[in-house]
Amino acid sequence: MRLDDSTLPDYLRQIGWLGGGEAAAVEKAGDGNINWVRRARAGGRSVIVKQARPQLERFPEYEAPTERIVCEARYWEIARAIDRDGVAPGVIAFDETAHVLLLEDLGDAPRLDVAMAQGLDATATAQRIARFLGALHAATAGDATLARRFPNDGMRRLHGDHIFVLPFHANEFALDPPVRARAEEIWRDGRLREIATRAYDRYLEPRGTLVHGDVQAGNVLLADRGAVLLDAEIAHVGDPAFDLGTLFAHLWLPAAAAGDAAAANRAIAAAWRGYGAARSDAGEQVREDATRYAAIEMLRRTLGAARVAAVADPAASLRVVDFAQGLLRARPQGS
C-alpha cells in the first residue's frame, strides 16, 4: 500500500486514529529526504506520518530497504525505555506491514541548525542530546541480540558511502570553483582518503552499541520540553563514537564556517560532559574517535552531496575544510 495525500485519511480511519466520519487536513512535514512524511490534523490534534518506500523520497535514484522504518521503530522502542528527559519522540503507532510509523507532532518547534544560525547558544541542547546518547549506548553495550533486530546494513552503507567515500574521490557534486580546487587537492593527496577508509571500516563493524546514525542538527527540534532527536532511519549496531562525532560536527560547523571554530568549544565540552555522565566507561579514546568522525562529517558536508546552509558561501566552505583537515591531521592515525 502506497499512501498519498488523498488516501491517508482513510488509512488513519482504518487504524483508528480518525473517527469514521471525521475529516483530516494533510500537509507536508519537514524535508522528507528519506521517507514520505506528512502531518495530519483533525479535531484539534495532529500526528506525523512516515512511510518508507523502496526509493528515497528526495533522491529516487537511490534505492533503500524499507526495513529502515522497522529499525527506526525499534530504536525508539528501546530509547523510550531509558529516556528520562523526553529526548525521544512519542510513538503513536507502527504498522510494520505498510511500513508506516506515526509519531507525535512537535508543531512549529525550530530545528537546531536554524536556531544556531540565528545565534542560539547550543550548550544546553548539546549536553541534553549527548546525555541521551550516552545513556542509550550504555544500556545497549554488549547486547548480542541487537544486531539481529537491526538488519539495516543497506541504509548504513548508503549513508556511509556518502560520508567516507564519495567526498574523498573525484566526483561531480556541484561545488563552487575554489571549493572544487581544494577538493581536488585532497583527492590528489590521498592521505585524508586513507584516514576516511579506516574510519569507514570501523563504522561498518557490527558491534558496539545501538547507534542512531544521523545525529545532525537538522534532526533535532527545540520543543517546549527541550531538544527532541528525530529520524532514526539509519539506526544500527555499531561504533557509539559515530553518534557523538556527528553531534560534534554539527556543533562545530557553523562556528568554523564563520571563522571562529573555538566558539563551539563550550558546547562541545558540554556534550562530552553529558555523554560521560551517562556512560561512565567513555574514556579519552572515545573522544578521539568521535573527533575523527566529526572532521570527516564536516568534510562531507562541504565536499559531498549533502552540503549544509552554513557553507553556502565558498569562503565559509574553505574555512570548514581547513578546520576539519587540521583536526584529522592532528589525530593519531593508527587507531
Outline the structure in words:
Strand 7 and strand 8 form a beta hairpin. Helices cover 47% and strands 13% of the residues. It has a 5-stranded antiparallel β-sheet with strand order 1-2-3-5-4, with helices on one face. With 335 residues, the protein is of the alpha+beta class. The longest helix is centred in the last third of the chain and has 20 residues. The mean pLDDT is 95. 46% of the residues are buried. Helix 4 packs parallel to helix 10 and helix 9 packs antiparallel against helix 10.
Layout of helices and strands, plus pairs?
Layout: H1 8-14, E1 25-28, E2 36-42, E3 45-51, H2 68-82, E4 91-95, E5 100-104, H3 112-117, H4 123-140, H5 146-149, H6 153-165, H7 177-189, H8 191-204, E6 209-211, E7 220-223, E8 226-229, E9 236-238, H9 240-257, H10 265-278, H11 284-303, H12 314-330
Helix pairs in contact: 4-9, 4-10, 6-8, 7-12, 9-10, 9-11, 11-12
Run of helices and strands? HEEEHEEHHHHHHEEEEHHHH
Rounded radius of gyration (Å): 20 Å
Report the β-strand fraction as a percent range.
5-15%
Q: How are the strands of the largest sheet arranged?
A: 1-2-3-5-4
> Main β-sheet: number of strands, strand sense, barrel status?
5 strands, antiparallel
Tertiary shape = globular
Low-confidence stretches: none
Q: Determine the mean pLDDT.
A: 95
Helix residue percentage: 40-55%
Task: Quote the distance from N terminus to C terminus.
Answer: 47 Å
The number of helices is: 12
Helix/strand-derived category reads alpha+beta
Number of strands: 9
